[in-house]
Amino acid sequence: MGWYSLLLAVCVIGLALIVFSRHERQQNASATSTTTTTTQANTTPPLVSDHWQVALSLDICGQYVNLPRTANQNSGIITTGNGVVDIEPARAGAKADQFVGAKATLTKFLTSEDVSVTSTKLTLPKSLGKLAGTYDSSRKCGSKPAQPMVYIWASPTATASFVAPSPVGIGYANGEMFSLAFVPRGTSVARPSAQKLIAAFIKSQATTTTTSTSTTTSTSTTTTTPVGPTTTKPVSSTTTKG
Known about the structure:
The chain has 242 residues and is an alpha+beta fold.
């Protein structure tokens, strides 16, 4: 009986060791295959710290109008109804990351204003009164067929615009100007009404940068030694789319 008991004990212990070993191998394999995901900070402008402005007007068969005031003035991209689109991600607080880099698009802003645009159809909100509704191939400007297009000027001083069939994928650059139009192809579209406001904004930013740089450059430190003359040591310290 002792001999058989010993054999049984050896078998039980061996089986337990095999089960334990298999468990350890599975745990190690699981730990090795675990992937650590690191979220990288956005480095594509606009950044959370940026404050940009662009101009945006509508041209519907020669009738010019601006989008009305944005309902949510705490959004990262808004307008006050004056034709200026103000891009300031930090204004959105905890939601600021929704308005930075590639997330800051013209389509995103238009969607928030209940404006829908494709290469064949433009839909305007009720807040635009008589101009509200859908503009597609069933409508004309007078007797001429028309279509939605986005005219873009690279800056307030750009001499010419270029045309995109829709705003899909279009981002912003500080100082750009956009005219969202439903007109016959080849029509000459006027610059946005906020051109002067955007020019003044860009100028104010440039003036602030120049003043800040000038102040830093002119800073100096004077060191007086017991013997000899006073020594002054200066402290060394800003796309046009065709």
